[in-house]
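User: quick one, sequence for these C-alpha cells?
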C-alpha cells in the first residue's frame, strides 16, 4: 500500500471513529450568611422564613450569573452584593454598629485563576464594599486598601458612597442600645458578629471566593480588622485546589489561616474537599473557637461545615442541588 493510500485510510478511520462524550464543567455556588449567631430559641417562624428568603435571593442571583455563562467572580460578587443590600445580614446595609454608633465594613474577593485578590477594610461610606474590593483587584496593583485611603480610591472609581446614617437601621440601633444598657449594668457579653460570603466555579473551571462583613457590635475597638478582608484567613481561592469563605471568630481564623489551610489540605495532602473542611472546622473547635466554612473545589463539589449552633447557608449546582439551611439538621 502506498503512503498516500495509507494516509487516506487513517483519515477515514479518524472521521468515522465514535465521538467521545465530554462531560461539561459542573457549575456550583455556595453562600453563607454567618455562623454562631443563630439562637433557635429566639428564632420565630417569621424570622426563619425571612432569612431563608434572603439566602435564596442571594443564592439564585449568583447562580443566574453562572447559568448564563458568566464568570465565578461575577457570581460571587452578585451573591454577596445581594446580602449586603439585605439589612438582616451583618454586611453592607445591615452592618452591626460599634460602640460609637458607626459601622465599619470589610470585604475581600479572590480570583482563583490568577490567583488575584482585592480587599478593603474599615470603610464607613461604601454602600457595597464587595464592589470596591473587586475594583482594588481589577483597577490597582495592590491587594488591600484601608479606611480613608480605601474611600479615596472609591471616589476615584466612581463607587456609590452613602452617609453613615444609611447603616443605622432601626434593628441595629435597638441592638446597640440594648448592648449599651447591659454594659452599664455591668454585664459584658462576648461581642457578636457575623459575615456573608460566597464561593463558585464557572463553565471555564475558574474558582472564586468573596466575603463581606460589618464586624463586631457594641464594645469592639474602632479600627479592628477581622479575617474577612485578609487573604488566606477568611477568603481564599486557587484553581489548583478550591475556593473558601469563612465566618466565625475572626481572630482565630487569622491565627490559623483557615481559608488557605482548607485549600492546602486539598492540594498537598490530597484530602477530599469535605474532609479538608471538616478537619479545619474541628481544629477550630479544639482550640475553643466557633465558626464555619463554605467551599467548592475544581470538580464542582461543595462542602459546608460549622461547629456552632447554626450557620445560614445555601448551595446550588448544575447537577440539580438546591439547599438552604440554618441548623445542623439542614432546617
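Assistant:
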Amino acid at each position: 500500500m502506498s503512503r498516500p493510500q495509507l494516509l487516506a485510510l487513517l483519515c477515514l478511520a479518524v472521521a468515522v471513529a465514535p465521538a467521545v462524550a465530554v462531560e461539561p464543567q459542573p457549575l456550583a455556588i455556595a453562600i453563607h450568611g454567618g455562623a454562631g449567631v443563630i439562637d433557635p430559641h429566639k428564632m420565630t417562624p417569621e424570622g426563619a422564613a425571612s432569612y431563608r428568603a434572603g439566602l435564596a435571593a442571594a443564592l439564585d442571583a449568583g447562580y443566574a450569573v453562572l447559568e448564563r455563562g458568566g464568570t465565578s467572580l461575577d457570581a460571587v460578587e452578585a451573591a454577596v452584593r445581594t446580602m449586603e443590600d439585605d439589612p438582616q445580614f451583618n454586611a453592607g446595609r445591615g452592618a452591626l454598629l460599634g460602640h460609637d454608633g458607626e459601622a465599619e465594613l470589610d470585604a475581600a474577593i479572590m480570583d482563583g485563576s490568577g490567583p488575584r485578590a482585592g480587599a478593603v477594610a474599615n470603610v464607613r461610606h461604601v454602600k457595597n464594599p464587595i464592589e470596591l474590593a473587586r475594583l482594588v483587584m481589577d483597577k490597582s496593583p495592590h491587594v488591600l486598601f484601608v479606611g480613608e485611603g480605601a474611600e479615596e480610591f472609591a471616589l476615584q472609581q466612581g463607587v456609590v458612597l452613602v452617609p453613615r446614617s444609611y447603616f443605622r437601621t432601626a434593628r441595629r440601633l435597638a441592638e446597640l442600645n440594648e448592648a449599651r444598657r447591659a454594659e452599664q449594668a455591668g454585664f459584658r457579653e462576648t461581642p457578636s458578629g457575623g459575615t456573608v460570603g460566597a464561593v463558585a466555579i464557572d463553565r471555564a473551571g475558574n474558582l472564586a471566593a468573596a466575603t463581606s462583613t460589618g464586624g463586631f457590635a457594641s464594645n469592639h475597638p474602632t479600627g479592628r480588622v477581622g479575617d474577612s478582608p485578609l487573604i488566606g484567613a477568611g477568603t481564599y481561592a486557587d484553581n489548583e485546589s478550591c475556593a473558601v469563605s469563612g465566618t466565625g471568630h475572626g481572630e482565630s481564623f487569622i491565627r490559623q489561616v483557615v481559608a488557605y489551610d482548607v485549600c492546602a489540605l486539598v492540594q498537598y495532602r490530597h484530602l477530599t474537599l469535605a474532609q479538608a473542611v471538616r478537619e479545619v472546622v474541628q481544629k477550630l473547635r479544639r482550640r475553643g473557637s466557633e465558626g464555619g466554612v463554605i467551599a467548592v473545589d475544581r470538580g464542582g463539589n461543595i462542602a459546608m461545615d460549622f461547629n456552632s449552633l447554626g450557620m445560614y447557608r445555601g448551595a446550588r449546582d448544575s447537577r440539580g442541588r438546591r439547599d438552604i439551611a440554618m441548623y445542623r439538621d439542614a432546617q
